[in-house]
Amino acid sequence: MSKVIEAIKVCKTFGEQRVSKNIDLAVEQGSIYGLLGPNGAGKTTLIRMLSTITQPDSGEILFKGEALKESHAHQMGYMPEERGLYKKMTVADQLLFFAELRGLSTKDAKASVKHWLQRLDMMEWARKKVEEISKGMAQKVQFVSCVLHNPQLLILDEPFSGFDPVNADLIKDLIIELKNQGTSIIFSTHRMDNVESLCDHLAIIHQGEKVLDGGVSEIRRKYATGVYEVGFYQAVEWGAGMSATGESTLISEQLQSDGKVVYRFQTSDSFSPDQLLKLAMGKGNLVHYSEHIPSIHEIFVDTVSKTAEPIAGATIASGPL
Amino acid sequence: MKNIFVIFKREYLTRVKNKTFIIMTFLAPLLMVGFYAATIYIATETGDDDRTKTVYVSDNNPELLLSHNPPANYVLLPAPSDSDSALAHVERGLVHGWLSVEDRDLRSVDSATYYTSETPSITEKESLKEWIRNKATQRQFARLGLREGQIDSLQSSCSLETKEVNGQGDVKESSSGLKSGIGFALAFMIYIFIFVYGSMVMRSAMEEKTNRIVEVIVSSVKPFDLMMGKILGVAAVGLTQFVAWIVLAVGLVFGISALFLNSGNGMTTQQAVQTGIEARTGMGGMGAGSGTAVSMGGEMSAQGSGMTSGARDMAAEFTEPLSNLPYFQILAVFLLFFVGGYLLYSSFFAAIGSAVNQESDVQQFMMPVTLPLVFGFVIAQTVALKAPHGAMAKLFSMIPLTSPIVMVVRAPFGVPFSELALSFGLLVLTFVLMVWLSSRIYRIGILSYGKKPTWKDLWKWLR
């Protein structure tokens, strides 16, 4: 697969603040790339550089192998975190304006606006001013405004913030649909729940640096810590036979709300999962046995908290200055 | 370029299609006319104090003062002989005031004292003074043995015609009043246009920023293009409004004159002139206007002929100079400086709009921008109208911040081409520089949210 956009050692400084430090990133065509990081980590700054709004101080950005230039903006769709619409313009006029800004001819723009309004069942709202439609409706218009021109790369900064759950799901479906049509998507978020279900690839940015990067399942596997979970309907006594499982130690015991008791074992390299299972089966009514794969959330918290510096970066403004 | 056009189109269409714009385009001229009519009406009709005032007059020769023609709205009574009771009457409000003229010869105007319980206005004081002075003059004339008719014939009048001699040796009639009027009207138009449409540009930039639309836009358009599209779009809105007004005004003038000509109720200038001539030579008698003027003797006749000859003078004063005005130069200067001045100032306004986060933060940045504009207008009103070719007028018609206003005031008086070219060149240079600087502020300003920007911030963004 070819790379749609690639950043190589990208740096950006605002005054004294280094907001992006040597960031590398590559987005494959037709994939969804998640950009994670706490607030103020430098996600928006990075995204603004990718979407040609600002230029990096050093390093380079390639769009389909060419150095990124303003004309590439016509092949990109961008929905910033801070977004809005012209309140006094009608939905149709507004969408037409954005489509023409992205380089469509008036004719193509009209066709595209019609297509999308029909697709989202919004034709009857086309002549309404934005101030007259509901917020949920405006959110849909907002999303449509950045995909009207059929972009090859869609950049979404915190796409789900401010959206109600119904619209968030709708947007999610649209994102997946666009991906299946071959659109590459970058989105930034500080919420992990969306990342695991949507992303193929993710990077964690912290204090302007990329601290982690890789395929989602690959990362989770890599971060597997060798912890196994064994659950019973009631508490059991361990002790005898533990040595047969190799190096494994009981690290936690947790009574869950449904009455299950879950034990966690930290295992070592010489550990044999079969032995632990066998041992567990003799202890009582076994209901759960699995290797604990950390969630992206845990990986995120773990990665960010391991960074030596205190999280002073969280106060860096996301915009310039 | 295409992007500037897309922005331009949006700015233009959303405004022109706006109901308020359409209503204001038709209403504004009426409001303007109404405003001026009301001002003139108030100034001439209701501004005066129309109470009738009873005033004591004491003089060594009261008969003369009291004899005839008291000032308008005054009833004059001889003052009681003792001054204490006169003052007491004034104090108790029995009479409005007491005018005491001590000087026996009435030679000095300072010698009169006006006692009153309420301080008179300047106009009231002046008209009293003027009245006393007239009376004193009349008395002096009488003393010299002149009769009233003779006194009138002593009052001479003079009219000064101006003729312009140009390089080709042609001599043409000119009118300073007309030129001043045209120059001032044009300057006023530029002044208003820059303010109204400049702040429109500013609000538009602010709207995009506060509604958070701007980031989407700058991801496909360069901030410079966005700013230029906006400035040009708003300018086109203004020009549309101007054209609509001109069409409206021409339509109104033709409509009204057609109406009057058909119903025969009014006189055209030519008719007035004709009537005037007939009245003076006494050859008329058929026309309604001339008939009355001739048939009434004495004072009325003099008044009538004065009026018609005034109309003739006025017509003569304006018709020929009107056709002699350097129209092409005036129009060219107006358009060039109008566009140049608007572009220069609106780029400032755009930069301000992009820098601030809310309307209330605007004030601190507006001051330095509006000051030169207001200053230019003051210069236009004073220096440039009094001495259009003076050193001060020349200086300020060169400085780009004031030249758009000062130069159009000078234009009808004839400005050498070299001066025009230099001034316009400076204006264009400054405009290009300022648009470039403003776009640097704009570029960063539109994406900076949060704290209120300071001058220091703006300076930082410029670099």
Structural class of chain B: alpha/beta
The percentage helix of chain A is 25-40%
Mean of the pLDDT scores of chain A? 84
CATH topology annotation of the largest domain in chain A: Rossmann fold
Biggest pleated sheet of chain A: 6 strands, mixed
Poorly predicted sequence stretches spanning 5 or more consecutive residues of chain A: 310-321
Annotate the secondary structure layout:
The complex is a heterodimer of chains A (321) and B (463).
Chain A (H helix, E strand, L loop, with lengths): L2 E12 L2 E12 L3 E5 L6 H8 L7 E6 L2 E2 L8 E4 L11 H11 L4 H14 L15 H11 L7 E5 L7 H16 L3 E6 L3 H6 L2 E6 L2 E7 H7 L4 E6 L15 E8 L5 E7 L5 H9 L4 E6 L4 H11 L15
Chain B lengths: L1 H15 L2 H28 L6 E6 L3 H6 L6 E5 L4 H10 L4 E5 L10 E5 L5 H22 L4 H7 L7 E4 L5 E4 L1 H35 L3 H5 L4 H41 L5 H13 L6 H8 L2 H27 L2 H29 L7 H24 L4 H6 L6 H8 L6 H29 L9 H8 L1
Parallel strand pairs in B: 1-2, 1-3
Antiparallel strand pairs in B: 3-4, 5-6
Note down, in words, how this protein is organized.
The complex is a heterodimer of chains A (321) and B (463). By secondary structure, chain A is of the alpha/beta class. Chain A folds into two domains: 3-221, P-loop containing nucleotide triphosphate hydrolases (Rossmann fold); 226-291. Chain A is 29% helix and 29% strand. Chain A has nine helices and 14 strands. Chain A starts with a strand and ends in a 15-residue tail after the last helix. With 463 residues, chain B is of the alpha/beta class. In chain B, helix 7 crosses helix 9, helix 11 packs across helix 12 (298-324) and helix 14 runs parallel beside helix 16. Chain B is elongated and about 90 Å long.
Give structural attributes.
heterodimer, A: alpha/beta, 6-stranded mixed sheet, 4-stranded antiparallel sheet, 9 helices, elongated, B: 463 residues, alpha/beta, D-Maltodextrin-Binding Protein, domain 2, 3 domains, 4-stranded mixed sheet, two-stranded antiparallel ribbon, 18 helices
